[in-house]
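TA notes, week 10

Several of you asked for a full example with nothing omitted. So below is the full record: structure tokens for the whole chain, then the designed sequence directly under it. When grading your own attempts, check the secondary structure regions first.
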């Protein structure tokens, strides 16, 4: 009986040490060695990103703006004013917050594309896809499923 208790005590000490080693290993593994504080592609997003390039073009053409967001510019601006108090974040010394107009534009564009893919109208599913990297700024496609 003593031998069993001694082995059990040794196993318990060994087990707790191994648990500590395993936990430390997992902790070290989770930490990433970062090459950049902010990747150069993300640093250029405010001037060369999809939002900054696309919104300037959309604001210049009312019909393209309506096709993209399914609302007029005045409605978009009113919605922006209504949501401003709830969604506005504060800039910090380290990072600028995403502007409210960009947040709303991303939300609306993703929501419209999601809804358009699943609405059926007389056997036709209308999917509006805007390609930001094509020669023309807008590429629309209508997929027919009968």
């Amino acid at each position: 009986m003593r031998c069993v208790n001694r082995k059990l005590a040794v196993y318990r000490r060994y087990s707790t040490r191994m648990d500590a080693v395993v936990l430390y290993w997992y902790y070290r593994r989770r930490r990433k060695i970062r090459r950049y504080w902010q990747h150069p592609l993300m640093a250029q997003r405010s001037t060369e990103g999809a939002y900054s390039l696309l919104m300037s073009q959309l604001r210049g053409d009312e019909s393209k703006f309506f096709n993209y967001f399914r609302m007029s510019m005045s409605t978009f601006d009113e919605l922006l004013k209504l949501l401003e108090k709830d969604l506005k974040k504060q800039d910090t010394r380290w990072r600028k917050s995403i502007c409210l107009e960009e947040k709303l534009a991303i939300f609306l564009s993703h929501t419209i594309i999601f809804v358009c893919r699943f609405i059926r109208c007389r056997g036709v599913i209308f999917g509006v896809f805007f390609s930001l990297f094509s020669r023309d700024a807008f590429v629309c496609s209508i997929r027919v499923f009968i």
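The longest helix spans residues 2-30. Use that as a sanity check on your answer.
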